[in-house]
Write the structure tokens for this entry.
Amino acid sequence: MPYRVLIADDERVIREGMATLIDWSQLGFTVCGLAANGLEALEMVSEVKPDLMLVDIQMPLVSGLLLIEKAKVIAPGLEFIIITGHDEFDFARQAINLGVRDYLLKPVKEHRLLESVERIRKEMDRQRRSKEQYDFAMLQLQKNMTVLRDQFLQQLIQGQLVQEEIDEMLGFHKLQAGFDHFCLLRQSRQSRLSGHGEWDRQLLRFAAQNIFEELLSRCGPYVCTADLTSNLFALVKVESTTDWQQLQRTLSEAMRQTLDLDIRLDQICFGQDWTLISERYETWNQSQVRPVNPLTERAYTYIAEHYSDPDLSFRRICEA
């Protein structure tokens, strides 16, 4: 896509001459406008959105230097070349302070204008590439933000982060303002998953997670992740036990009404100390471990010892 250049000079011969003095298209530019005074040029900045302006200092209504100052407010990335008949230090100093790229004296030589425009175009190319790379990186980051939040909660649960790292990650995910208090909860599905095909179960899990996260988002900032058994763990903003009970009722009722699905919500951790999350999670996780029946343990042992036996059968396991 070519860059756009706007030429502002109160002398018609000069502004039209600048438009034809060099081959703008060969340099990657298109002349998008010619302005006869500073006020007209300023209005055109908003209309034609130039990337580069050639500006005469002495123009009626609005001077070249004032034009540059005001145009930079409208279009901060706009580049400028001053073309003037005044070889005065004060003008040059003011131009430099305004970030003008070059200062050319009339009559402008073709090779001087060519060199100046080429130099500016190379810098504009570099800036354009940098912006494209940045935009691409931000797009990829947005696409992976859910994964990154998932990883953050996993690291919190596993105790892999110190407070400084937690603060940094909260800032990165723009969560710090909403988490004066937090609640780590687990949602497990209790019914309607048995007796269905695998495809139906996967659809149900997907729908349940979407509804779960939609409701959490209405309560404020949250982070959510799922384990291998499709239990959902969420970190949500909860200020009090009353808030927690209300959230529990809202989530349970929504699942029943929408999917005819009963769920159980466990509050694993509540408070302000983020470093306690992994400890409280481990305590809760240990409480979920059920003791193995001695008969079951004997069966597992027998199978492990005789798994290569071609005569191994369910009856032999029961008799062992």
Observations:
- The mean pLDDT is 79.
- The two ends are 80 Å apart (CA to CA).
